[in-house]
Amino acid sequence: MSERLPVRKTYKLFVGGAFPRSESGRTLEVEGYNVARASRKDAREAVVAARKAVAGWSGATAYNRGQVLYRLAETMETRTDALAAASSGRREVARAIDRVVWYAGWADKLAQVLGSSNPVAGPYFNFTLPEPTGVVAVIAPEEPALDGLVSRLVPALVGGNAVVAVASEPHPLAAIELAEAVATSDVPAGVVNVLTGLRAELAPVLAGHMDVNAIDVTGADGDRTTLEELAAENVKRVVRAREEQSPWEIASFMELKTVWHPIGR
Amino acid sequence: MGAVEKPRTEVAAPASWDYAPSLEGREIVSLERRYGLYIGGKHISPKSRSWFTTISPATEEPLAEIAQAGQKDVALAVGAAREAFRTWSRRKPAERAKVLFRIARVLQERARELAVAESLDGGKPIKESRDVDLPLAAAHFFYYAGWADKLEYAFPGRSPKPLGVAAQIVPWNFPLLMLAWKIAPALACGNTVVLKPAETTPLTALLFADVCRQAEVPPGVVNIITGDGSTGAYLVREKGIDKVAFTGSTEVGKAIQRELAGRDVSLTLELGGKAANIVFDDCALDQAVEGIVNGIYFNQGHVCCAGSRLLVQESIHDQLVRKLKRRMATLRVGNPLDKNTDVGAINSSAQLERISELVQSGIDEGAELYQPPCRLPEKGWWFAPTVFTNVAQSHRIAREEIFGPVLSVLTFRTPDEAVEKANNTMYGLSAGVWTEKGSRILWMADRLRSGVVWGNTFNRFDPSSPFGGYKESGFGREGGRHGLEPYLRFE
């Protein structure tokens, strides 16, 4: 009996809900696969896809966003083997899945914890609510390949942002396996976009992009100064992880809006 | 006139109306000839040996000589703040609170003096300094005083700690109020500060140094350094700072963000705006007109959240513009110290030049200008209340922040179009919505990309109400519980 040859996956990008190759036709050999090497143009396309998705995702009810993210935890759970093979193993996968569940539960509590009703000195009703900033770029940490990305991606998602994530450069497979879980959950197309390739090539495009509202540079290490300089071009919110898991990590990707209205007969 | 019906004219001509002047006495302010830098609790001459003169924009009269802080002076101030941080941050929070309460009280006690100084140095009408700037500045200290010993309740599950030395740069439009917005939360959280007032309006910050003396603020906790933009640049580059809080132009804000790239210095920016004030056909029209006038002519339009783009539903455009022009004609432009004055002096000749240049661009690009007849004083810097109709979204006067008493009127047909046009800007500081339909107010408030939305009102401020921008209007909030966070780190 001859041994069966396994069918190997082609690791491609995840943009606008589809899995395209890089428009440049380039790949990188990493972790034994020819992984797509996203170009600057792919990065810009991903921002367009994310921007298109913002209105729908941020306009969904908080309850709905919570359910959709919980569904993501479900689709990740059934892909545990694939995710484990692409990361450091089952423990990391379990940690990442539990994190998604934890954040999913925050969707409909955020406004109560981060918002406020403000007792102004006058006949006005005044309240403050958190709102998503819009399109967020996430430069994922190199390690852990899966949970590192999840711990920065999901706090941005739960508040209603759309994300363009640059996967870990040395370990990109986990990000694409995660993208497949996203694609089969009910996360709308374009809400999550994943680019694989060279960080030094992609991160500056996102940092300097005029239609990106915030950039998470947690995984950017040595490039931080350059990226933050570029980010100033449109006063981007520059985010770095402060806590491993916290509602304040969600708050980093949120704006606060204060509404006034007179009270009268 | 009696029974004879007055002919209906489009615009009354109150420029001819005679008002008896009602001048606020300025003798309550006694100014020194020269003001040094306030560092470590002492007034000292600048090492730079350089001075400049602050003048009244209403009369061009020199008021006092002001120190121009150089790099060494800035380093000295930051050093003093760093030194003071060691004891101030460890002081019992309840005691820190009491210092802030005292500041609030002294501001209330000296409100009249400070209001007159503010109007003299900055050109804003005395009724605004007296009724808005001073009461709000005192209220801000009172509000944050109470937080000083309650910080752990503001951030459940986190352990708040002060950052260290806060470098704070404030603009010339609300000099003392912006000082209060900056200093009150910083001190309440246990930080010490180096504050730089704007070049053209340093006086009330320097008088505030005396308020600190009376309130027994420990030396070095509050340091005031004066100078032009170069002083601010030195301050931001100084190694010993942990925090920068800046209110001013988007251009300078971006330069600061760039400067701080890669450094572990926390940053908040409160920058420019081009607010849409959106008027629906079902609004209470006369109230809306008052709100529009307040939105753009308050403080000569030197307001980052000014309602400088009026979006009117097409069906009421003509009627509204007629009413607006009639109301504009009743605005009194003139001596800031006159209690009748509605619109004071433009803050500086440079600002007047910028306003004039943008207004000329409006004319050149084809918008239609209207200014009510009004007599402007001969000395000083003045600009008549101005409205442009027939404005297109592409016009510079519809896109750029003018920071003057200039309103651009655009129209819309549907709520969706109003949202689209309102959000079509790189700014996102504030917006106004006028309609009697409650559900529409909330629908609009939900979609407007700005940090503050005023429904059926405009230009309201309160220490308990968070204020700050979306997009290129900056990040971070000042006011309210949310205004504490930029001055804390969490363990």
Please specify the SSE layout and strand pairing.
The complex is a heterodimer of chains A (265) and B (491).
Chain A: E1 27-30, E2 33-36, H1 40-59, H2 62-78, H3 80-86, H4 90-104, H5 110-114, E3 116-117, E4 124-132, E5 135-139, H6 147-158, E6 162-166, H7 173-183, E7 192-195, H8 199-208, E8 214-216, H9 224-231, E9 237-239, H10 247-251, E10 254-262
Parallel strand pairs in A: 5-6, 5-8, 6-7, 8-9
Antiparallel strand pairs in A: 1-2, 3-4, 4-10
Helix pairs in contact in A: 1-8, 2-4, 3-4, 3-7, 4-6, 8-9
Chain B: E1 34-35, E2 37-39, E3 42-44, E4 51-55, E5 62-67, H1 71-88, H2 93-109, H3 111-122, H4 126-147, H5 151-154, E6 160-162, E7 165-169, H6 175-188, E8 192-196, H7 203-215, E9 222-224, H8 229-237, E10 243-247, H9 250-259, E11 266-270, E12 276-279, H10 285-297, E13 309-313, H11 317-328, H12 349-364, E14 368-370, E15 386-389, H13 396-399, E16 406-412, H14 415-423, E17 430-434, H15 438-447, E18 452-455, E19 474-475, E20 488-490
Parallel strand pairs in B: 1-5, 7-8, 7-10, 8-9, 10-11, 12-13, 12-17, 13-16, 15-16, 17-18
Antiparallel strand pairs in B: 2-3, 4-5, 6-20, 11-19, 14-15
Helix pairs in contact in B: 2-4, 2-7, 3-4, 4-6, 10-11
